[in-house]
Amino acid sequence: MDRLGNRFDLLVVDEAHHFGCGLRDEALEMSIAAARLGLTATPPCDAAVAERLVELVGPTAYELTIGDLAGTFLSGFDIVTLHLDLTAAERQAYEGWMTTFRTVHAQFRHVAPGASWEDFARTAARTIEGRRALDALRRARKLVTFTEAKREMLRVLLHRHRDARLLIFTADNESAYSIAREHLVMPFTCDIGRGEREEVLVRFREGTLRALVSARVLNEGIDVPDADVAIIMGGALGQREHVQRVGRLLRPLEGKRALVYELVSRQTTEVRLARRRRAGLAPRGAAAV
Amino acid sequence: MLPEALLPCSIQGNVVLPHFLAEHDHVWLRVLLEEYARFVGRRQRELDEHLRQPLPCASPAVKRRIAIHVLTRHWGSRRAATIPPRRARAAVFAEAARSQEKPAAVVASVAAALGVTAAELTDALFADLPGERLVAAPGEVLSPGELALRTNLAIAQGFLFRSTAVVIDMEGNARAVVRHAKLRGLICAVVPREGERRAALEISGPYALFRRTLVYGRALSEILPLLAWCHRFRLQADCVVRGQQLMLGLASGDPIFPGRAPRLYDSKLEERFARDFRRVAPDWDVIREPEAVQAGGTLIFPDFALRHRADGRRWLVEIVGFWTRDYVERKLALLRVAGLRDLVLCIDESRNCADGSLPSSSRIILFRRRVDAAAVLRLIERESAGAEPERRGGGVPRRTG
Question: Which of A10, A151, B124, B332 has its CA 20 to 30 A from that of B230?
Fold first, then answer.
């Protein structure tokens, strides 16, 4: 941008939610454009980031949610949340890891009640106990995103929707490859080369591929043609990721109604995460400024 | 580039002190290298999983992670597949979408069509993915000492990646540093040093004129391997570490891997002069491409600095290839502006590109095909002693050709 910034009067910032919180901000500061248009399906929730985005791009001029647009400019959709149990062995492992984490986290909260998660992570990384706690939390989260029950439910759903164009979202690439091997679903990940990914999208549009499984790459910025069913096995990035994933399904077609299955492990941290991430899809009415 | 949390350091006042690996780290580095060697031929993900566990000997967690980061980039991997994985994927997933058969039957039918076994097809399916590739020994196997130096380079570059500007005081290889700065769109300014004729280079980017920015960190960190080949350098960087603005200092002698050696000489002519001068003047150091010199709003890059080891006398030498009278006159004017009296211009008398003879100057040595090192030494000695300079072919440069 330091070589282009003085050459344009209008700056269009697509996926504007990527700005306001870090190094990318300077790219916008290097532009002299007085007229700026920011576009995003997931405006930032963090007040400081939102404020910074106002400085970099400008105040919100027009706002609608996916819920407001569904059925008109976007296709209508239904979300089916399926709460699934852990097996006894999974439950035991999960509780063990969470106990390890909670013990250290509670000690930290006692000493620093107002501290943020980032403060905790930074402090924990400096001690063996802290690193063990973070590792335990990582393992617990990983476990709940890809449980036995979820795998079994996936099998059922793939069979039920065998004629649909289907997207499967996982929390990580490892789970995506596991599904790809077990169910012979084409993976769409960062490890697959760009040329092959483009070819895959063409074949998905033609119908010679009927399902794709992805962790992050399909989250945003890629137009997936004609998908109408999504299965969300697990997520790691919260509300923004969820809205963007659902958005992949909502290209409008005559008579189309998309269906999103959200698989949630019962009595785990996933329940709260799932509730929070769904908030981004609720209608809130148009607001023109 | 290493994330900030992985940078081992301590902070004293406003100075950040990197914690480099030293000889006492060689024990666990050797064990780490042996672990890599043990996994040759096995899947990368198996090695990755194994390396998440502590080593069988004591090792500092953060430094171990950095060394693994460095080794993973250095170590090779290869694909083991009977058929190209992309072709295997295209065939298998398309057939799976079309067929109502179970996955095992789909794989078997595709394998038969491709002329491989089902096991070979399954192995080929993802054989090109990073975790599925097979660990392969690198062409150059590192010793623990080399690995320590490479790890230290990664640490030092990690700090420079978080820097806003650097000031470099250096001797030798200056042209390569300035060339890199120019290629990366950085601004390279000469900062005079009080009481010293040698100037330092301040390097940053245009946006740094307006605010402290880390956007040039990557380009600045790439300078470090070039500096390692300088005769001598001292670098000071403004860094942002742990939310604080700190000063980082690096210098010749720090245990940092030097990177690939730059080409030392641009031509045989320069190489021969350096060799000849060392022979005729054993008391003098010959330094290739010393610091840049500011003169009349531009930079001059002398080809050599000649420094007397005992009395510290220092002369610069520039070898001029093609020239015109105007060019040499402008050059001499620049040297006058810069007050640069101790620079010898060696001019190839057969490469005059226009009419006109050389302007008169006491610091010009003419040559044909080979710079006369002895003549350069005599000129320096006489000029140093305040005597009349020696001129080849008389007191005025001889025009030939």
Answer: B332
Q: Kindly state whether A32 is in contact with chain B, defined as any CB-CB distance less than 8 angstroms.
A: no
- Between the CA of residue B376 and those of B230, B289, B334, what are the distances in Å? 24, 17, 21
Asked whether the beta carbons of residue A131 and residue B61 sit closer than 8 angstroms, the reply is yes
Closest-CA distance of chain A to residue B182, Å: 14
Report yes or no for ipTM above 0.90: no
Q: Report how many Cβ contacts below 8 Å link chain A to chain B.
A: 55
Which residue on chain A is closest to B205 by alpha carbon? A2
- Predicted local confidence at residue B319, as pLDDT: 87
Among A3, A29, A191, beta carbon nearest to B130: A191
Residue-wise pLDDT tens digits, B22-79:
999 999 999 999 999 999 999 898 998 888 888 888 889 889 999 999 998 888 888 8
Residues of chain B found within 8 Å of residue A187, distances taken between Cβ atoms: 126
Candidates B220, B219, B48; CA nearest to B134 is B48
| CB within 8 Å of B330: residues ≥ 6 apart | none
On whether any CB of chain B is under 8 Å from the CB of A138, the answer is no
Dist. CA A70–CA B358, nearest whole Å: 82
What band does B389 get if pLDDT is binned at 50, 70 and 90? very low
Q: How far apart are the first and last CA of chain B?
A: 55
Task: Name every chain B residue with its beta carbon within 8 A of the beta carbon of A203.
Answer: 94
What is the rounded CA–CA span in Å between residue B270 and residue B261? 17
CB contact under 8 A, B207 and A29: yes
Tokens 């398309």: give the residue. B94
Chosen for mutation from B2, B93, B121 (greatest number of chain A CBs closer than 10 Å) is B93
A100-132 pLDDT tens trace: 999 999 999 998 888 888 888 888 887 888 888
- The amino acid sitting at A55 is E
The dihedral region occupied by A233, where left means phi > 0, alpha psi between -120 and 50, and beta the remainder, is: alpha
Give the count of beta carbons closer than 10 Å to the beta carbon of residue B184: 15
Distance between CA A187 and CA A182 in Å, rounded?
12
Q: What is the CA radius of gyration of chain A?
A: 21
